Amino acid sequence: MSIDNTAMFTDRYELTMVSAALRDGTARRRCTFEVFARRLPDGRRYGVVAGTGRLIEALAGFRFGEEQLRSLADVVDDATLDWLRSYRFSGDIDGYREGELFFPGSPILSVRGTFADAVVLETLALSILNHDSAIASAAARMVTAAGSRPIIEMGSRRTHESAAVACARAAFIAGMASTSNLEATRRYGVPGAGTSAHSFTLAHVGLGGGTGDGERAAFAAQIAALGVGTTLLVDTYDITRGVATAVEVAGTGLGGVRIDSGDLGVLARQVRAQLDDLGAVNTRIVVSGDLDEYAIAALRAEPVDAYGVGTQLVTGSGAPTAGMVYKLVEVDGVGVAKRSSHKESRGGAKSASRAARDTGTIVEEIIHPAGSPVPHTDGLTTTALQIPLVRGGEPVDDLPSITDSREHLASALVSLPWEGLSLSSGEPAVPTRFALP
Amino acid sequence: MSIDNTAMFTDRYELTMVSAALRDGTARRRCTFEVFARRLPDGRRYGVVAGTGRLIEALAGFRFGEEQLRSLADVVDDATLDWLRSYRFSGDIDGYREGELFFPGSPILSVRGTFADAVVLETLALSILNHDSAIASAAARMVTAAGSRPIIEMGSRRTHESAAVACARAAFIAGMASTSNLEATRRYGVPGAGTSAHSFTLAHVGLGGGTGDGERAAFAAQIAALGVGTTLLVDTYDITRGVATAVEVAGTGLGGVRIDSGDLGVLARQVRAQLDDLGAVNTRIVVSGDLDEYAIAALRAEPVDAYGVGTQLVTGSGAPTAGMVYKLVEVDGVGVAKRSSHKESRGGAKSASRAARDTGTIVEEIIHPAGSPVPHTDGLTTTALQIPLVRGGEPVDDLPSITDSREHLASALVSLPWEGLSLSSGEPAVPTRFALP
């Protein structure tokens, strides 16, 4: 299977439901499914939508070819296999744009089509949106904590190899500066970054004289290959000696040093002083090592120039999935909803708007029936949140690029009430009003 | 890029290191890299190795073709591009087999080759092993908690679409019975499972008379398509009525009912009593809804026949990555190790054995220099833990299948001291002895 074929990233029950629905005609009923999160992860003030662009790309590959159909021969009957063979999503999708904020109940995606057309997209849509939004939501908090300092995303090794590529993309939308992941650079144009690991220094053991540990030889080799603008990893052995050697080898024009272990605040101060004493006043300090948004914030007063984040980014900093669901809300114009305990949904297709003061600060999110006017908001400006994404199965023209989405998020975060950007636990930054019948 | 090409699932710095190492000849030094976890996730008693088989498959696709090389033209110099063009891993890999237990420091993988040959595999090896082992480690606890009751893996929608396939594979190795993920069934032969969602019932609104909610029509359609052996989802509206309708429509031969919300223990008892009263004494009860190992264990005394797990499985039940690192430990026969604070490594290539009593119960794991005899253990039987995986760049014959790995893990878990299978937090189930110089 080529990565371009996405049809099998699907739960078996989507197809058995289609099979049953084809028999009794339900398959052809006009339906609206909505994607939303019932709540935000504990204490989070906002979520960030990501993955929409990947989902729209993945739609084009959602085709059941003969290879896929052979493997489904004992899952569904021949009539269903025939239906799958000719399946192309032909409905419409509206949704929150990538880089948009979301809150509990926000109708992030609305998928309209026949029951069968829309139900088979459930697993793929949720996989992409739940993963990418979880990463972007965590990343945005880290970017906020870092202020104007850039963050390098370097978490590929801590997550599934394909998920890593999506993580780098989501992190860029959320405002991170660059990624270590080569495929994310190739596929999405996310700026690349990265220099060397401890193994590179260790591989030089016994070379280059000096202490025999080869650190000097390693630095010389890296500079020969990458120039003095490179960032040298100075904490393989003794950091103070590492910094001294780095400046000896590179000169005071050394681009940067990276510290990957120990008390990063203390070490950053110590290394800054040492670099300044040596005359390397423009040499940047990059720190890494299990940083999350809180550790980044704690380093705000330290002389750090850039952060590298890995594990905490790709695991969503405690919230590795966004908790979004894909629910049928309307059938042939009738609102439907599950009624059993604890997991109630609100029936009927919905639209959403955000109401803001003249200053731009958001006051509330309003969810109202699709097609009905936005409820009155006294003296506030309302902006519709859903945009058209797919019409008649085809992506609309001029979908936002990841750079557009990144800029959109940066503006959206500025529009939150001030407490919304707090890292501390609390309620969602703005209330959601359900103006529904 | 086809999914078969895995070369770009790589951190940029692996290639810049190669570039620098090619210039000064370090690239050709004979090296051993080892994969290990410094610690287990908080309170976990053991880890489960998974991903080894996927890694060996991915090695075959680790090739830099012209498409990949074009995107690397501004990352490395021409000499490095040439080296990458002809890159084939030609070294040896030994490692713990899939389904093997691991503990802090266990040398899960040993990669031997030139520095350049081995360093470029770092990101891919860690991505696969960290992800798959995290999932298998969580899954094994859930399987233990479920005892003889089967678990259906249904977490695809809560994780990246490709990661979902690997999750299903890892969960099967860990003892789960089946998966909802179609691609995992197609690619790896993991048994498939799945029937219907609430949306299927809701899609029947207004059909089939009765209460007008269409539940009866939905059940009839599912049975028509899948037979009475299917599992009906009974909690869309009122569970008691759902169960009654299910048995009316299917008869007492109904395969199963699924409950996906509410207090699962209370509902399971109530539904069991109702089913028995209706004569459906063999109808199974499947429960799902944010189950983790603790929730599964809490249901042990309830009349539950099978569990569906999703979110908690694919997020590693609180530990979404296994924390493994890929460290250079030996260069041209000399042991090397990072010396800076908190992240020390033990230099030198290592082997590992497990010492057990006659009863089979493991007493300790012993890590000793590779090539040296296993240290003496009084009256205990020792078993070597690493097996050959790759020789001269090629997978060895007769690598274990996922079914072999699943059986191996089942035996290995039985060999733990009894407290090792406890779900409560504690120390690793067996101590590790580092019999190193």
From TrEMBL, chains A, B:
InterPro entries per UniProt: Aldolase_TIM, N/Namide_PRibTrfase, NAPRTase_N, Nic_PRibTrfase-Fam, Nic_PRibTrfase_pncB, Nicotinate_pribotase-like_C
Assigned EC number: 6.3.4.21
Record's keyword annotation contains Manganese: no
Pathway this chain belongs to: Cofactor biosynthesis; NAD(+) biosynthesis; nicotinate D-ribonucleotide from nicotinate: step 1/1
Top-rank lineage group of the source organism: Bacteria
Keywords: Glycosyltransferase, Ligase, Phosphoprotein, Pyridine nucleotide biosynthesis, Transferase
Domain Nicotinate/nicotinamide phosphoribosyltransferase: 152-331
Reaction(s) this enzyme catalyzes, per UniProt: 5-phospho-alpha-D-ribose 1-diphosphate + nicotinate + ATP + H2O = nicotinate beta-D-ribonucleotide + ADP + phosphate + diphosphate
Pfam families: NAPRTase, NAPRTase_N
Modification after translation (UniProt): Transiently phosphorylated on a His residue during the reaction cycle. Phosphorylation strongly increases the affinity for substrates and increases the rate of nicotinate D-ribonucleotide production. Dephosphorylation regenerates the low-affinity form of the enzyme, leading to product release.
GO terms under biological process: NAD+ biosynthetic process via the salvage pathway
Enzyme class, first EC level, given as a word: ligase
One of the record's GO cellular component terms: cytosol
UniProt domain Nicotinate phosphoribosyltransferase N-terminal: residue ranges: 8-130
Listed GO MF terms: glycosyltransferase activity; nicotinate phosphoribosyltransferase activity
Entry function: Catalyzes the first step in the biosynthesis of NAD from nicotinic acid, the ATP-dependent synthesis of beta-nicotinate D-ribonucleotide from nicotinate and 5-phospho-D-ribose 1-phosphate.
PANTHER family on file: NICOTINATE PHOSPHORIBOSYLTRANSFERASE, NICOTINATE PHOSPHORIBOSYLTRANSFERASE PNCB1
Family: Belongs to the NAPRTase family.
UniProt name for this protein: Nicotinate phosphoribosyltransferase
Species the sequence originates in: Williamsia herbipolensis
